[in-house]
Amino acid sequence: MIALGGMSPHSDAPEVQLASVEPIRVLLIEDNPGDKRLLEVSIAQVTTVQFDLTWAEMLSDALAHLAEGRFDLVLTDLNFPDSKGYETFRQVRDGACKSPRSNLCAADC
How far apart are CA 18 and CA 9, in angstroms? Predict the structure, then answer.
């Protein structure tokens, strides 16, 4: 879990008490460790919420995670060794049920 707190860099708002706030459960489906790290660094800059980040490197692993629990957000690449393009999108859409989803893809997709 990535627990974040403190002052917002863009305001003088007081610190938010995170103990009473449920973390945002994010499933990141990404086979590139560098891209995973980029997301971790980016969300570490958010100071008003906590994130519970689950990482899956393969679509098959991600589908198992989706079957086990509910996520608040699913972020996915589209190309994996075990799935490509629209087929990836379709399987994530079908597995994620009502979780909001966003597709991430490198410029060379």
Answer: 17
Give the Cα separation of 78 and 75 in Å (integer). Answer: 10
Question: How would you classify the pairing of strands 73-76 and 101-103?
Answer: parallel
Taking only Cα atoms into account, the Rg of the chain, rounded to an integer number of angstroms, comes to 15
The CATH number that applies at residue 98 is 3.40.50.2300
pLDDT (tens digit per residue) in 25-70: 999 999 999 999 999 999 999 989 999 999 999 999 999 999 887 8
Which of helix, strand or coil describes residue 98? coil
pTM of the model: 0.72
| CB 49 within 8 Å of CB 77 | no
**Closest residue by Cα to residue 99 from 5, 7, 28:** 28
Task: Evaluate whether residue 10 is within a structural domain.
Answer: no
